[in-house]
Amino acid sequence: MLPPVGNWIDRFTEYSGRAVAWLSLVLALVVCGLVITRYAFRISLPALQEAALYLHATLFMVGAAFTLKSDGHVRVDIFYRGWSPRTRAWVDCIGTLVFLLPVCVLLLMMSWDYVAASWSIRETSSDPGGLPWVWLLKTLLLILPVMLILQGVAELLRRLPVALGRVADP
How many structural domains are present in the chain? Predict the structure, then answer.
């Protein structure tokens, strides 16, 4: 049983993951538009090319926490799948505490000034005809670790009672 804060984080992650999943459809349409304009009409549209980049970045960086929640990240299951639920829960807890959370904090610390500088000048594309929202794109460098930290906490709250033998694997 997840505490209320864990349920809130799960709902937030679920909602944001499902919402951002729609960007894959938009991305496919934008790429089709790019291909048609480039090869059928011999027209290059820098704004549309950058839009594809923005959509792709948003899809992956906001969707990472949803993937964590859904247990969809790549894992080497040679040993893991044969272990008991309690052992797997310990591995997940240790992995979250030793790898996920420290890497996310490091990413936040290393990205903060970079993103702040971009915001301070409202950085735009250096490509003529590009999009004027580079500062928003760079903000994803802060959104990614924050969302992963939140979902990492929810995963810890879910796995720790299993690791400690207090509840069965949910």
Answer: 1
**Nearest to residue 62, comparing CAs of 13, 118, 117, 131?**
13
Q: Is 62 strand, coil or helix?
A: helix
Is residue 162 a contact partner of residue 169, using CB atoms and an 8 Å limit? Answer: yes
Q: Is residue 38 part of a domain?
A: yes
pTM assigned to the model: 0.91
- Spatial separation of the C-alpha atoms in residues 148 and 156, rounded to whole Å: 12
**Once rounded to an integer, what is the mean pLDDT over residues 28-36?**
96
Tell me the residue range of the domain where 41 lies: 4-163
Tokens linked to 134: 């580079």
d(CA 119, CA 169): 44
What is residue 169's predicted lDDT score, i.e. its pLDDT?
67
